[in-house]
Each structure stands twice: as structure tokens, then as C-alpha cells.
Design brief:
heterodimer; A: 11 strands; B: mainly beta; seven-stranded mixed beta sheet; four-stranded antiparallel beta sheet
Chain lengths: 109, 113
């Protein structure tokens, strides 16, 4: 079966750095996405990786290793507004998105 | 105004009732999706549509139906609601770019008693 694994919850301190991991087992691979979802709100797109390596976008970076079926989202200079759930999703060989359950990130002052 | 709009935002109904959730978009995207989100689970695809004449079942289509009235409108119906359909429902459109990011509506929270 197809599976996306990510930690259920993480806690970090304001101003620090946090890395949220995502491992996947899917039938084929056509890209990996990260979305941010604040409580009670819609998910919003953060990043997309299809080739191995690091994609940087401001305070957020996303890394992909296709051979390891692994990605991480790196958040720097954490702010209280970064408290949210972070969803990892992979497009499989049929271009269907498979979603992880999300990682709830709690930021403490 | 939101680019992807869902109505109603909240609905409480009783078992056996027919419910329609509506979604409209101003982004001009052809591809639209309906997902449900439950605590502790990833988003699960109910139905999707690549254009007005193309509608496809997702992984959990049983108990649901959809209608694509126009490029901009995609409605989800629960023919006879049951309590385990209590969930947060999201409509989304897919962008035209290479990677096809999704743009989500604000969500419709449905409670079936």
C-alpha cells in the first residue's frame, strides 16, 4: 500500500530552528508537496520538490531524497504564527496526491 | 474575496437527510477536488473533476455524489447522511503550473447527528 509518515506533533521555541521529517512509500513519484494548515483553516501551499536537493524559500526550506523516500521541511527563525499543522503529500504514478496525517507544530515563547 | 468559496461553512444535520455542499471558484482552473479531513488522518479524496464532462471517483466515494455544473462550480452531495460522515470537507482547485499546487476553499464543517 501507499504510505506517508510524519511525526504527529513537535514542539519548538520561538526564534529556533525545527525540522519536520516525512518518509513515503508510494507507487511511483511525481513530486512532493508541503502545505501549512492553521487550526480551523484551509491548507496553503508551501513548497514543491521533484528533484533531489534543497529548495529554499525565505525562512522555509524543503529537502528531498528520492532514493531514500525522504523529505524534510526546515523552518528557521521560528515565529509564533508558525504554530500550525504541516502536511506532506506525494504525487504517485497516476498523479494522485497521497497525504500524510500532518505534523502539529507547537511554538513556545 | 476568497478565490475558492464553499457554502455552507458549518452545517448540523440528522441521519438520513440529504446534504449538498457547494464550491465555486474564480481562479479559472479546470481541475477541482473534494476532500474530507478527519482528526489523525490525512486528507482523503472523495471525487475529482478535470473538466465539466470529466468526473472521477476518489478513494472514498461511497455515500457521496458530485455535480460539475460549470467550470467554476463543483458540488458535493451526501444522499443520506450518516454519523461517520461527520468531518471537515474541503474543495480545492489545481493550478496550471508544472507542479499543480492546490488552492483550497475555507472548508465546510459537517456534523451528522
Amino acid at each position: 500500500g501507499q504510505n506517508i509518515d510524519q511525526p504527529t506533533e513537535m514542539t519548538a521555541t520561538e526564534g529556533a530552528i525545527v525540522q519536520i521529517n516525512c518518509t513515503y512509500q508510494t507507487s511511483g513519484f511525481n513530486g512532493l508537496f508541503w502545505y501549512q494548515q492553521h487550526a480551523g483553516e484551509a491548507p496553503t501551499f508551501l513548497s514543491y520538490n521533484v528533484l533531489d536537493g534543497l529548495e529554499e524559500k525565505g525562512r522555509f526550506s524543503s529537502f528531498l531524497s528520492r532514493s531514500k523516500g525522504y523529505s524534510y521541511l526546515l523552518l528557521k527563525e521560528l515565529q509564533m504564527k508558525d504554530s500550525a499543522s504541516y502536511l506532506c503529500a506525494v504525487k504517485d504514478s497516476n498523479y494522485q496526491l497521497i497525504w500524510g496525517a500532518g505534523t502539529k507544530l507547537i511554538i513556545k515563547p | 474575496d476568497a478565490d475558492v468559496t464553499q457554502t455552507p461553512r458549518n452545517r448540523i444535520t440528522k441521519t438520513g437527510k440529504r446534504i449538498m455542499l457547494e464550491c465555486s471558484q474564480t481562479k479559472g482552473h479546470d481541475r477541482m477536488y473534494w476532500y474530507r479531513q478527519d482528526p489523525g488522518l490525512g486528507l482523503r479524496l472523495i471525487y475529482y473533476s478535470f473538466d465539466v464532462k470529466d468526473i472521477n471517483k476518489g478513494e472514498i466515494s461511497d455515500g457521496y455524489s458530485v455535480s460539475r455544473q460549470a467550470q467554476a462550480k463543483f458540488s458535493l452531495s451526501l444522499e443520506s447522511a450518516i454519523p461517520n460522515q461527520t468531518a471537515l470537507y474541503f474543495c480545492a482547485t489545481e493550478g496550471h503550473g508544472d507542479h499543480g499546487e492546490l488552492f483550497f476553499g475555507e472548508g465546510s464543517r459537517l456534523t451528522v447527528l
